[in-house]
Every structure is written in structure tokens, then in C-alpha cells.
Amino acid sequence: MKDRVYVETTIVSYLAARLSRDLIVAAHQQLTEEWWQQRRPSFDLFTSQIVVREAAAGDRDMAQRRLDLLAEIPLLAINETALDLAKQLMRRGMIPARATEDATHIAIATIHGMHYLLTWNCKHIANARMQKAVAEICRAAGYEPPTICTPEELMGE
């Protein structure tokens, strides 16, 4: 059985975007492309309707490219349990109220038993300062949180 990965919006955004002139962003885009081509087959990918909605926003052509990348990835349910866990993450101050979707990504991945949450959002999701407290909140609610990481961290060998 393959490990399960929740694909967050930034992953398909980096894959679909034109190569950035910012060296760090360009490196992240390259790492994401390498992960997608080389490592993706080793995992079962999942996403959510939130990712689909976020990916559909903006420039129509770019949105279509993002949606095409998501087309074959199964959607995880956004249910009351996930929404309640997201509220707990925000209520405890781990995720700011303005980042509701970010808390919901974590909650969806957690309640559905994902092994990994793959993202380049290092402000509110893959943030080392928040991860310990986020994990404690998830465990207190009875769930084992996924490992939150970037494609670089999930490259493997």
C-alpha cells in the first residue's frame, strides 16, 4: 500500500506557472516538477474541493492548467469533523483567522488519515514554529496529523 499525500494548491500552482524570474521560486518550481515526474507515482494522491476552487481562480488559461493537473486526483470530503478541527486550529491561535483555508487543508488531510500534506505554503502550513502545536491539537482531537512537507523534503532517495 502506498503512502497517501494531500496535494495543496501551491503544488499545482508551481507546476502550472511560467518559470519565475525569482531564483528561489524558480528553484521551488523545478523541485516540484522533479517530484511530480519522479516521485509522484510512488504515492496515492488526494486533494479537496478547496484546492479545486483555489486552482480555478485567476487567469483562465493558467486556471485551466492547474485544473488539468488536478483532474485525476480524488477529492476528500470536507465534512463537519474537518471544519471543527480547522476551527480548533484557528481558535488556539496556531493559524490566523484570515487563513481559514490553510487550517482546513490541514484538517482535511488529518481526518482522512493522509501520511503527508504536500505544500509550498510555509507561512501557515509548512511552518516549523506551528507544526508542534498543530500536531498536539490534532492528537488531542483523536487524529494523527500528516507530515507537512515540501516536495524537496519528500523527494526520497
CATH level-3 fold name: Rossmann fold
Query: Which structural class do the helices and strands define?
Result: alpha/beta
Beta-strand content:
5-15%
Spatial extent as radius of gyration: 15 Å
- Count of extended strands: 5
Shape: globular
Major sheet attributes = 5 strands, parallel
Oligomer: single chain
Q: What's the CATH H-level homologous superfamily?
A: 5'-nuclease
Tally of domains:
1
* Share in helix: 40-55%
Summed up, the helix count is: 7
- CATH structural class: Alpha Beta
Taking pLDDT < 50 over at least 5 consecutive residues as the criterion, the unreliable ranges are none
Overall mean pLDDT: 94
The separation of the N and C termini measures 19 Å
Topology pattern, helix = H, strand = E? EHHEHHEHHEHE
Strand order of the largest sheet: 3-2-1-4-5
Q: So, CATH architecture?
A: 3-Layer(aba) Sandwich
What tags apply to this protein structure?
five-stranded parallel β-sheet; single chain; about 160 residues; 5 strands; Rossmann fold; alpha/beta; 7 helices
Structure description:
The protein has 157 residues and is an alpha/beta fold. The chain has one domain (3-149): 5'-nuclease (Rossmann fold, 3-Layer(aba) Sandwich). The chain has 7 helices and 5 strands, in the order βααβααβααβαβ. β4, α7 and β5 form a beta-alpha-beta unit. α1 (9-16) packs across α4 and α5 (80-91) packs across α6 (100-111).
SSE inventory with pairings:
Elements: E1 3-7, H1 9-16, H2 23-39, E2 43-48, H3 49-55, H4 60-70, E3 75-76, H5 80-91, H6 100-111, E4 116-118, H7 128-140, E5 147-149
Parallel strand pairs: 1-2, 1-4, 2-3, 4-5
Helix pairs in contact: 1-4, 5-6
